[in-house]
Amino acid sequence: MAKGSQGRKDHSKVKIGLAMALFAVALTGLWAKTGWLQLHEGDVLQAKAARQSHAAEEIRGERGRIFDRNGEMLATSVETKSVTANPFKIEGVDKAADALSRILKISRPSVYKRLKSKRRFVYIKRHVTDREAAAVAKAELPGVYLQSGFSRIYPNGHLAGQTLGFVNIDGQGLEGIERIFNDRMKPDKARFVVQRDRLGQRLYLDAHGREVDINGLDVRLTIDTHIQHAAEQALATSIAKYEAKAGIVLVVDVDSGDILAMAVQPFFNPNDVSGSKARQRRLRAITDIYEPGSTMKPFLFAAALEEKVIEPDTLIDCENGRWKIGGKTIRDTHPERWLPARKVLRYSSNIGSAKIGLDLGAGVYHDYLSKLGFGRKTDLGLPGESSGILMVPGKWTSVDLAAISFGQGIGATAVQLARAFLCLANDGVTRELNLIKSPAPDRKNAAIRVFSAETAHTVLSLMKEVVHEDGTGRSARIPGITMAGKTGTAQKAAKGGYGDQYLSSFVALVPAEDPELLVLTMVDEPQKANYGSMVAAPVCREVTVRTLAYNGKLSETLDQAEAEQVDVDGLVEQPLSDSMESPRKQLLTERVPDLRKLPVRRALELLTRKGIVPVLKGRGMTVSDQKPAAGQPWPEDTNKEGTDDVFVLWLS
Questions:
Q1: Which of 269, 351, 498, 635 could anchor a disulfide with 491, C-beta 3.0 to 4.6 Å?
Q2: Which residues have a catalytic role annotated?
Q3: Neighbour-count burial for 623-646, b at 16+ CB within 10 Å, e otherwise
Q4: What distance in Å separates the CA atoms of residue 300 and residue 357, rounded to the nearest whole number?
């Protein structure tokens, strides 16, 4: 037995050697394969992996904002989501179409058609609500993505809507300020790389994409939100009362030419462009041409005084209210015989004005009107502005000259009329209107002297008599405040002559001796009354009172009954809190207030007074949440680059 055992061979060492040899061959093969992949196929495989998990994306920045003269927000952008898809990565088109149709409330055939597109990128629905975005994310549909973007909102609704204009779904300005400064406000684009998980959700954004400044630049207007609000509400009240077709109110700071308010009725809410009509979107203050009527008479008197054709006390025969010229009959509402020139203006006699115009002459009067800017666009630069109508003097008949003398036979826009009155208020030197504070406007029209300072002051003195207790503008009087004014009641042209519709207007310069404020009101086609003294003058008065009160310049002699009318919060539908207080008196709490449930307009108003421009997230017009929370200290500097102290409002 022992001998047999000793004869048996031991193969364990051989087995171990074979195993080691096999491992060596395997490792050598792996090393060779690894070397081959690294040296020869590494770049190709790396690119393939990158295509599967990384993607280059392009984003747009935020469109520039629009502010009023005090820094209150008029237009901004909020972050929104859009639902997109890559049809080549859709797994189960029917299932995806069913889910998206249900979540987004759009027709299934429409969704199905887009998901079957031959393109690698399609929009399913743009600017979805937060709830829709959350539902799409929860559905986890391969090939369906949520893309971040921005949607334009106007926190004050219809406030200055026609002036601001609007943008299309791609963020391109189509009307108003949005169109004029589209190149300035439109954002740039940045291209960056993102890594996605298996569902296509973004994991990170590279540093380059975060650091590039791609936001558009802001624009600041001369408009004052509070004065604009007062003008719009006063105009709306008058139009409703007299069942008028439309209306315009302009408020201008005389010293600078800044337009503080440009109210136009019917109102237009740029948040709801699709629900509006063309007549609402039209900025009538610059597009609509009117025969201004008797509001043109101060310029006739200024020209006649400058040319020594009349003196304030020159007697004029007003023909007892009825006078024929060139086969046409001119009538006066209040028949008079002999009147001094000052009372021709005070009582707004058409016959007396026509006789002054005939003595002045067509060529001379046309020259003054041209210098005042009639027949020429203003420097506002707004799209769609009209040049008005001013015939060459060689075509004027005696009837034309007589008619133009009392504001018929000439066409002007509201801004042209305001610019002309600004010349009288500025000692006879022209001054252009301003609507933009930043960037500084590029002026085309140089200032020129049209009237002597003495003539301008004399006309203002005569206009002061218009607001006298027996003048046509007496309903615009404000106790304790001197006012130079002029009424206008222009019969509107119709087929074959003049019809039965009127334009009622009033212009006020306050104070009369050295004007600081110009207020112009036009009410188009009032039905229950048509005299400018009844329809337009009270609007002018109300806007003037509110503006003076807001600026802290309302006279102490104003009696209690007048003072009560300054309570805007009791008169307007959507009052701006503290809208009559001077900005210097408006205080904020020491800690962050509770902004939840406030309209976004009001929240923005409070924050911008503190110097904070918040980040808005979500869609809607009401604040649903905020950061920092109520009661927390105010952030030190939310506008400083790189700071973590960002004020965020979530909207719903």
A1: 498
A2: 294
A3: beebbbeeeeebbeebeeeeeeee
A4: 7
